[in-house]
Write the structure tokens for this entry.
Amino acid sequence: MVIRHLAEGVEVLAPAKLNLFLEVLGKRPDGFHELETLMVAIDLHDRLTLAVDDSGQIALTCDDPALPTGADNLVVKAAEVLRAAAGPDASKALGARISLEKSIPAQAGLGGGSSDAAATLVALDRLWDLHTPAGRLRELAGQIGSDVPFFLDAPVAVCRGRGERVEPLDLNPDVIAGFHAILVCPPVGVRTADAFAGLTPPDRPEPIAPVIDALRGGDPGRLGRRLFNRLQPVAERIQPALGRVRAALNDLGSSVLDGHLMSGSGSAYFGLARNREAAELAASRLGDLGIGMVRVVRCGP
């Protein structure tokens, strides 16, 4: 995430993410699923502006009227969790005014809400002068949502457990920034709970090592052949219209895209391109098909 200090408060750019690999290993006793996933941040961002509110209130406004701005929003939840962790004496005086400008679609598998929550944790920890240790901040992030800890360690990491166990990958930033993709966000969403409810975990899970090796190698063609998402067939059964997006990406062929995949539990898809010019060519061909928002993105913060 990118943080900029303002005259009053801070502005944070909260990135979206793509899942280059997602395997579901089985059902956990707590009701969640055991995951193994490789996630990378992209340059599609929500924008949050945060300022201290001396009244002690936490107030969120959002430019998307469809999003709740109360306790159900992960931004508000993140602020409340951080404030509670500060202790009863400190938390009485901690308030914030938060403005959220959305660019990352909801129910798209791009982690927008989780990224917003992580940005809120980092920004309010600074504004409230709490100096929360990094390990404790990751612990709080895991309490808010499964994908939230990743965004504290972005741009690229392997996530396990229900997603909260994060292993950042130390890769050359130039290698990551060299990957470009075409992103397609259909006008329909997929609820994460529905996608997992319709899944039967495999007897023999796909290994994650080959996709990590391909990413380290910086070869889009090799990486494109290793893309994998166990949830994609389930999401396409829930929302049959998603099959049209997959078909459109497939029709572009290997001369334009090195591979394509649904991100997370859907409904967004991405096509991996060998360079920005190939991604822009894909965008020009997909733009008139009416399959959703189409844009070129770059991997990295």
